[in-house]
Amino acid sequence: MFLVWVGSCVKVRWMGSAVILMVYFDLKCPLSIGILEKNVFLGDFAMNFNRMSSLFALVMILLLVGLAHSAEPEQQVAVTIDTAQTALTDSSAENGVKWIKHDLPQQAAGHGIGAGDINSDGRCDVVASNGWLEQTAKSGWTWHQEFSLGSASIPILVHDVDGDSDSDIIWGLGHDYGIFWLEQGKDEDGKRKWQKHKIDDSWSQPHFMLFADLDNDGKNELITGKRVHAHNGNDPGGNDPPCVYYYSFDAPSKKWKRHLLHEGGKVGFGINTQAKDIDGDGDIDIVAPGKSGLYLIENLLVQQDI
Ligand SMILES: [Ca+2]
Ligand SMILES: [Ca+2]
Ligand SMILES: [Ca+2]
Ligand SMILES: [Ca+2]
User: Fold this and answer.
1) Going by fewer Cβ within 10 Å, which terminus of the chain is more open, N or C?
2) Within 13 Å and on the Cβ side, how many CA atoms surround 302?
3) What mean pLDDT, rounded, does the chain reach?
4) What does the alpha-carbon distance between residue 111 and residue 115 come to, in Å, rounded to a whole number?
């Protein structure tokens, strides 16, 4: 396709993604409106000047360009970079909070990230898809390539699942089926080893998960849900109905029990679900934003007038 630009092209949100809306001429049609996403041409809406008056065509152009410019701008936080001190200043924070940049080893780069004290030395470590970064006493990092989680959720959770005082790992496959946990243990030589257990692989795209005590028993439950259209429907099970569940762990049997929070509707997870007592009645509720909308899942455990 041969393109000649005749107006501005603008960045807008469309179907949950950032796209470029452009007005152009091509050889087949004098005037077209097209959509471009990450260098991939998605389609166009052609108009023929021969069948329209010039005045009407001009009005259409102005309306479309005006609509594009009035689209909601992406929220931006201004960040200035002080290269001499490798410090970042967040202008949205009061009193000018400064962030000092620390480079982490590249082995930790990939899909999925989490943090927690893996080796119980009191220092927080970083967990990645293919291993974990041990924070050393001198603020350095040592890479341990001890497992392979796949395209893991964000976050990967570090938690002592079985209550034996060492940290285990919980994650979901953010773009496939499956929620799992890695049990930490030791082999005959005292060397750390990991054993993989399945929690649930009956639904796909558990891209985000969190802990909260939903039943007020003093122990946190694992809460997660389907990230609706995590890859715009192209992941395995990507067009299956949304769902939200929480899971409780029974230590003697080492089994997880699934509890239903939502099925059969539109409520799913995005990438930043929160668990808070929104209505102040003494139980934890869930606020779930995502591509299918923004939802409050109200906990009815405690029902009292407030
Ligand atoms: Ca540690
Ligand atoms: Ca453990
Ligand atoms: Ca609980
Ligand atoms: Ca509540």
Assistant:
1) C
2) 17
3) 81
4) 14
CA of 163 to the centre of ligand 1 (A): 18
Nearest Cα residue to 174 out of 130, 206, 129: 206
Q: How many whole angstroms from 71 Cα to the centroid of ligand 1?
A: 46
What mean pLDDT is predicted for residues 145-171?
97
**276 Cα to the center of ligand 3, angstroms:** 14
Question: Which residue do the tokens 């407030």 mark?
Answer: 306
Neighbours of 31 (CB within 10 A): 18
Q: Quote the CA–CA distance of 110 and 121 in Å, as a whole number.
A: 25
User: Dihedral of the CA atoms 27, 31, 32, 33 (nearest 10)?
Assistant: 150
Taking 70 as the threshold, does the pLDDT of residue 22 lie above it? Answer: no
Q: What is the pLDDT of residue 39?
A: 44
Residue 8: the pLDDT is 40
Tell me the C-alpha distance between 77 and 97, whole Å: 13
- pLDDT score of 246 more than 60: yes
- Measured in whole angstroms, how far is the alpha carbon of residue 280 from the centre of its chain? 27
Least confident span in 23-37, 149-163, 189-203: 23-37
- 290 band by pLDDT with thresholds 50, 70 and 90: very high
C-alpha 248 – ligand 3 centre gap (Å): 8
State the residue for tokens 């890859």.
231
Cα-to-centroid distance, 44 and ligand 2 (Å): 55
Supply φ then ψ for residue 184, to 5 degrees. Answer: -85, 135
